[in-house]
Please model this.
Amino acid sequence: MGESETICPFPASLRKLDVFEEPSMKSMALLSNLTSLTTLRLSGCSNLTVDGFNPLIAANLIQLLVHGCNTLAADMLSEVASQRVKLLPAGYISRLEVLFTDDICGLLVAPICNLLAPALHTLEFMEDERMESLTEEQEKALQLLTSLQKLSFLYCVALQSLPQGLHRLSSLKELCVFDCQKIRSMPKEGLPVSLRKLLMNPRSTEIDEQIEKIKRTNPDLSVEE
Model:
């Protein structure tokens, strides 16, 4: 793309941007003037890297979807976390409420989860084909998300277990686990008492039995397939 990479093709007042399957897009510098964005969706931009990313893009961001862009979501949020004192407005607090990504490993690190803790209420992991289980550090990072109300794992085909610390997510109201066929049991410590809705499909006999036990201690829990 050469020199055109430094040209910003979108108006600075833009509030929502969807970029879908655009392999020619290689630098986040193309979006560097978009500091009014509230919604950013980047999907299938396999050559796009964090190069040229302006952390101010995140200043007003409420919804972020990054899918099929390698480690871009984690790279962007790491940059925001590390540069917030230097480059973002004084007293900046992340306003991000909704995040969709296919990179469980990249996202569940303490600096990113600390950054997202104030406002993030919906976190969806979809089509992460690498993650098998969470490490202790990733478990601790997940527990930093104290505003989280909805957590989803969709088509995470390698995932063999749900986070063992789920019961500590005291704001969680909804858990969705869809087509993660290697998950054969629920976390040993169960689910948070705050949970009101569980959507899980498919479910093993063992999982069904464990859910029945959980429902006895949490009668308000609605279970769907």
